[in-house]
């Protein structure tokens, strides 16, 4: 028995038109795509009616925090993947800043086992660059790669020593593995709650300067050039970083980059009060930086959109701004936010947005995913593009409720998510 998804709207990337199609899935893979008008042979098969809804390749998020092991009160692989499925994501890449850090094969195996037994979407694990993310000793890249790590990153902190980063890049390059960098120079203001901008000034707060990110981006681009590694910049937030990445790409250096919805949609001037739901790292920057992020995703300087889904508990986020941890959740709001604010407004085509959340990340990280085609895994997302609904954190499947987008009236809500042809979430 197979499964038919009937009457879905598939995006024709050539003309950005939505066309009605029927998709037949067998043994987890897309087996047939039938034109409207042709009567599909549904006898004896399961049928899903997608009448009028968008059927997209499942979204891919190359930057999430699922907190397991060690911080299960914030999120688990079970709740994190549920949250992902609800957001229409079928593949997510997990950051290693758990407790313990994913810096050895035992911890990596633990994550893989949990993903296998409790995860409802595909989970790809990153491993740390340095032991305990302390920046002192490199982890065992060879062993971690062999066990299934897809790249190396100390996300959460910057690798402070240029020599350490260079050694890591040489090693990763020799193994054909990417280095993924959280860019933050700790000799500049570090740990402040907001950017060095209007909000900081108004409230008499110290601010994190743009250079603390961009100095690492510039340094690492030079090191990537010297080592030949595939270097990927995490959560780009400043116009200076964009400038450096743009130039590096022009020079043919192997650099790729990601941006988060919040850095495309919010600036420090939007922060309403001293509220930790607006605190994340990197922080919301100035309106000029937001403009630069939009330009950079539009011209291809930034390759993909990621959420940096970073759940924290209610109690942690209720602390005063300086004490509260950095991070906001993102999986359940990413697509509706971007669809409503960029596609509905006519700034982007639907196919542009979907590419940045499917094909592009798959391309950059060599994943066999991100496209609806015969023979591909049936990782699919069915999205209602019409119904308008307000963001309500009490409905999140994530344990985290920490979002600045509460109450935003959005369209483009996923209604059903399939992984390998199985419905893993349905509203
Ligand atoms: N982005 C955040 O604000 N927080 C992340 C760490 C990180 O991505 O650097 C976290 O682990 O909570
Ligand atoms: Zn980070
Ligand atoms: Zn992160």
TrEMBL record:
Binding residues annotated for Zn(2+) 1, in chain numbering: 63, 65, 155, 308
InterPro entries registered for this protein in UniProt: DHOase, DHOase/Allantoinase_Hydrolase, DHOase_cat, Dihydroorotase_CS, Metal-dep_hydrolase_composite, Metal_Hydrolase
PROSITE patterns named in the record: DIHYDROOROTASE_1, DIHYDROOROTASE_2
Record-listed substrate binding positions: 65-67, 97, 281, 312, 326-327
Note on cofactor: Binds 2 Zn(2+) ions per subunit.
Reactions the enzyme catalyzes: (S)-dihydroorotate + H2O = N-carbamoyl-L-aspartate + H(+)
Active-site residues annotated for this sequence: 308
GO MF assignments: dihydroorotase activity
EC number(s) on file: 3.5.2.3
Keyword terms: Hydrolase, Metal-binding, Pyrimidine biosynthesis, Zinc
Keyword Metal-binding: yes
Enzyme class: hydrolase
Family according to the record: Belongs to the metallo-dependent hydrolases superfamily. DHOase family. Class I DHOase subfamily.
Protein name: Dihydroorotase
Species of the source: Chengkuizengella axinellae
Gene it is expressed from: pyrC
